[in-house]
Amino acid sequence: MLFRSPGGVNVQAGLSSDEIAAARWLYGKPSTLATNGSVRGNVTMNGSPVFGAAVLAEETASGNLVAGTVTRADGSYDLSAMPPGQYGIRVTPLDPPVADSTPFLIRGRDIAPAYDSAGTSFLPSATTAVTLTAGSTVTTDFAVASGEPAFRITLIRAPGANAESFSRSSFPASMRPGQSNYFIGVASASLPTSGATLLIIGNGLTLGAPAFTNFAGLNFISVPISVASDATPGLRSFVVQLGNQVAYANGFLEIQPPVPDFNFDGLDDRFQRQYFPLFTAPEAGPNADPDGDDFNNRAEYISGTVPTNSLSLLKIESVTLTSGGSIVTWPSAPQKHYQVWSRRDVVNDSWRTVGSPITATNSLTQFADVSATNSFRFYRIEALP
Length: 385
Ligand SMILES: [Ca+2]
Ligand SMILES: [Ca+2]
Ligand SMILES: [Ca+2]
Known about the structure:
Blueprint: H1 17-27, H2 30-33, E1 37-45, E2 48-49, E3 54-59, E4 65-70, E5 76-82, E6 85-92, H3 108-111, E7 128-132, E8 137-139, E9 142-143, E10 155-160, E11 168-169, E12 173-175, E13 182-188, E14 197-200, E15 205-207, E16 211-215, E17 218-227, E18 234-242, E19 245-255, H4 269-275, H5 297-303, E20 318-322, E21 325-331, E22 337-343, E23 352-359, E24 364-369, E25 378-384
Parallel strand pairs: 1-8, 1-9, 12-19
Antiparallel strand pairs: 1-2, 1-5, 3-4, 3-6, 6-7, 10-11, 10-13, 13-17, 14-18, 15-17, 16-17, 18-19, 20-21, 21-24, 22-23, 22-25
Bound molecules: calcium ion (3 copies).
């Protein structure tokens, strides 16, 4: 709803936050909807309604866009099913109805044929602060200034570590928390070639000074970027500003979640998609045990075992007593973490850890308990999240 993306719905990437808001609004239970708030209002220019103006809601704390829509023919808009919180609301023009061969981020016709006649010759509004409480509806009207924006963003420079690469597209870019010392940017034929600032809104981003480059007939503005490990996942916006002129690429940088979980069940979707035809099916859930080995799917994920194979489970393969100690062997998964525990007596002794946690490098891990020479021990293996 905020931008185009290649190849229809991206089932690997899952849903963006504004798609989640739309789904909540369209299909939400009344009890859920009652916990959300709405923003509505009208957008006018010189006293007349503006058709097809983009209206965006940005969460103040994180800088993430959580909802976006376009105005109807009467200039009205609704942003529904938004979680309570503090938001900034702004109105920006869509791109004019240029030919497909001319770069653009989003035109009216990319939303629906009727929006081909959207009004695009106005300047982005200032941002209005709105506080939403559960069940509230806040009315926010905008009167935008007429005129063609001095510049627009029509391309996003792909984030990467190579300062010399000007790979770009009109589709959103994405970065993961922890990626650092990358370059990212925006481009178009009309962007300023000096003096402007490039900001990406929101928490957890460290941006350097802008660099201006003309490449392939396009004006690029680029900045070094690092994404903190605790950056809030979501859709961020690029802002180019020169004096009182401003252009937005709304929601064109996605900060990906550390672990994809688009069905909100707490279990890594990559694991669920790997083993189940439908990753949202009940048998793919964290507490299900479809292979009946007494380890639920969450436990199998942590231990690196196969949730659809009853023979694949965390267990001790063997314990061998040698003169150098006990050798404990168990089937493992590379990169998974394990802790060995032992006790001397089932009744009169308690479990204690043996050594430090181990990161497996193979499908079989061996651990030598050098303290266990010529003495009887019980062992257990714990898989660590
Ligand atoms: Ca999941
Ligand atoms: Ca199982
Ligand atoms: Ca299993």
